[in-house]
Amino acid sequence: MLDILVNVDDMRDDNPAVRVGLDVASRHNGFATGLHVVDVFPSALALPDAVEMLAMEEREARARDAWWGELCRKRGVRGAWEVIRGIYVPLLARRSCMADITVSHLPDQKDPYPASLNYVTRVLLASSSPMLLVPSAWDKDFRATKILVAWNNTPESMRALRAALPFLREAEMVYFVDGTDEGVAGFSPPPLPVRDWLTRQGVTLHAVQQFPANNQVGDALLDKVHGVHADLLVMGAWGHSRITELLLGGTTRHVLENAALPVLLAH
After folding, report:
1. Which of 17-26, 105-114, 229-238 has the lowest mean pLDDT?
2. Is 67 within the bounds of a domain?
3. Given pLDDT bands bounded at 50, 70 and 90, which one contains residue 242?
């Protein structure tokens, strides 16, 4: 049974993260916990009425327990509703450690921070579960019949693959693109035997393609996603220096900023 944590910032029935999280739980016999974080800014607590405003938000969020329960009942899913008050990033990261997958939203133009520094991205950088991030405009069911796996021989890639196994086993087609940097012979670690591992896990690869390790990987990857009409992209996050990617950009940042489909990421 998958333990699914759905990060519910916006408590609406048509919230894409809510719909996808419940889709995953329904299709994979999962337990769906809806979580709303009442975000606390320590500096704002000195303002008049700030504490009461937080208390009001928390009461209103807790009153949505029946709403979440009804959504779960309609999908035939077991679930629970949680509300936690505190500083957003460390709270969500800590709670997500109990989940197999955390479902949240991809950064969009409404976010107050750039994609590399927004709340959800910072949670992914912390000690959290793999995250299934959904575009804010996603209006489809989550079926993951065609999956593109972006592999680069890193622990992050392997953690993403392990989290994606329930989806990969049921997919009609799995496309595997390998962007492994061969490194320096005799010094760099040898490639992980990932294809043999996938075969043992019951995953059949429809196509395998080598990708060049260069600065255009992000564009090429999303072009490939579009070309095969993938429903899900699976990849490790920050295969290179995280500081480099955060400040200068990179594949992870490009995907976060431009992906138009759900992305399963692990760090």
Report:
1. 105-114
2. yes
3. low
Say what the pTM is.
0.92
Three-state DSSP class for 150? strand
Last residue of a domain, one of 107, 134, 161: 134
Reduced to 3 states (helix: H, G, I; strand: E, B; else coil), residue 9 is coil
pLDDT tens-digit map of 200-230: 999 999 999 987 666 678 888 999 999 999 9
Whether residues 158 and 127 share a domain: the answer is no
Select from 134, 169, 191 the last residue of a domain.
134
pLDDT of 60 reads 97
CA distances from 183 to 117, 149, 205, 226 (A): 29, 21, 25, 29
Tell me, yes or no, whether 120 and 152 share the same domain.
no
Helical residues (DSSP H) of the chain, grouped into ranges: 16-27, 50-62, 65-75, 88-96, 119-125, 155-170, 194-200, 217-227, 242-248, 251-258
Half-sphere exposure of 30 (CA within 13 A, CB side): 25
Helices 251-258 and 217-227: crossing angle in degrees, nearest 10, is 40
First to last CA, the chain: 22
Domain ranges, residue 160: 146-266
Band of the pLDDT at 76, cuts 50, 70, 90? very high
What's the CATH code of the domain at 230? 3.40.50.620
* Side-chain-side CA neighbours of residue 154 (13 Å): 20
